[in-house]
Amino acid sequence: MDYQQLWNSALSQVELELSRVNFNTWFKNTRIVDYKDGEVIIGVPNEFVKDWLTQKYHKFILRILRSIHESVRSVSFSVVKPESLQKKAQSIQISGNNTLPLNDLYVNKDDGLNPRYNFDNFVVGSFNDIAFATSQAVINNLGVLYNPFFVYGNTGLGKTHMMQAIGNTIKKNHPEKKIFFTSLEKFYMDLVNSTNLNKINSFKEKYRKYDVFILDDIQFITGKEKTQDELFHLFNSLYETNKQIIFSSDRHPNFITGLEDRLKSRFSQGMIVDVSLPDFESRFAIIKTKTTEFKDKIPQEVLEYVAETVHGNIRELEGVMNLLINYINIKKQAISLNDAKVLLKNSIRSRKNVSVPEIVKVICDYYNISDSFIYNKTRRKDVVKPRQIIMYILREVFDISYPVIGERLGGRDHTTVIHSYEKIKTNIKTNPELNKEIEDIKNLIN
Ligand code: ADP
Ligand code: MG
Fold it and tell me: Which of 17, 90, 254, 270 has the highest count of CB atoms within 10 angstroms of its CB?
């Protein structure tokens, strides 16, 4: 058995079911080191990861491995030496040729750009053509035509890819320009650290010297007043000197909770465009582009079937394509329509498109309170506990990120969410009553 292919195949399913952060944290430096009598031994980089995988993901990994190879009976984890991990690091790179590469591994520290994201591998369709056309106009008229350029749309629709591609294109056309790509979260952390170290002036200087400043996921600005203030002044300084500014968000600026009017009005001075879900033609084009290397092994009818069946965002499409590619790698043969159907049915456990308000409603009904209390600031005891439990469930069951949870529950800071999550998690262990309630709620949700 080819361990590497088995593990690659398993990883692409793991990736479908976990958030990207969780995936990177727990699965990045792992590989199969041995397989004997039905037992798969997975090499991990340290004890911490080993404990975590054993406690949290053991069954999950076993289920996935068994779905690929029936002979797998059990899974165990073993800490492996650094030189063996080197090998794994390479295999991630190699697997980049065989399947779709993992992101985030190739980011340039100086400008935050990942050369993997460019316009050559960016499919344009009716869902993103305006955003694409605007980005080309921005590239050709830096700082003067559409400033700022603001792109918004749901997760997994290519905002980051597009903004990275803009940065990479400008870098190629104008090597002398100082470009910087960062996320709001990183910008925020940088500000906090600089403040703590009394280096706020060098913080300001650093950002003011960029010719092109690209800020991803600005919706996380909710509740971060100091960051808004810094961003406002930075914006003015860059804008006045015709430096190009580009933002992305998961929603229109008017719907970013707590975004100050002065920032909203600055954003509307430029160009605001959205990206939407790809239609059938676009999905087909995306799948085709991403599987060209395997075009002999994936018949047209399979491509069509996937484009018809997978309606989600582009990240989900990529996950499905990884499954197909791994199947081909393992079986060393073309995939038939029938096999593709089986593969898709077994593997895409539809990660429910959770509706946060619905979850909130279920839990509030359970505790007999009005759900409107959850979103406001009340600290009434009978509200505080359900609110904490909601945060816990959204995190634990649905794997939603802390900042997003905070944002959806009335614009709370992510540290509050972390605190609530940890608190419930700890209390469950010593409080059987609470534990029972959580189990009840999980059943209700299922
Ligand atoms: P967002 O930032 O909107 O959440 P991403 O830019 O991270 O989405 O895109 C998710 C995945 O889909 C990435 O791997 C990206 O390369 C891919 N992708 C997005 N848009 C396109 C596109 N138009 N053509 C090809 N691949 C795309
Ligand atoms: Mg993104």
Answer: 270
Atom of ligand 1 nearest to the CA of 117: 16
Domain with CATH 1.10.8.60 in the chain: 280-344
Q: Domain 356-445: what homologous superfamily?
A: DnaA protein, C-terminal DNA-binding domain (1.10.1750.10)
Q: 155-185: b or e for each residue (b if 16 or more CB lie within 10 Å)?
A: ebbbbbbbbbbbbbbbbeeeeebebbbbbbb
Contact of 316 with 6, CB cutoff 8 Å: no
Tell me which residues of the chain have a pLDDT lower than 50.
Answer: 85-103, 349-352
Q: pLDDT tens-digit profile of 90-142?
A: 433 333 334 444 445 578 889 999 998 999 999 999 999 999 999 999 999 99
Q: Identify which ligand lies nearest to the alpha carbon of 114.
A: 1
- Closest CA to ligand 1's atom 14: 315
Pairing verdict, β 149-152 and 74-79: unpaired
The architecture of the domain spanning 3-103 is 2-Layer Sandwich (3.30)
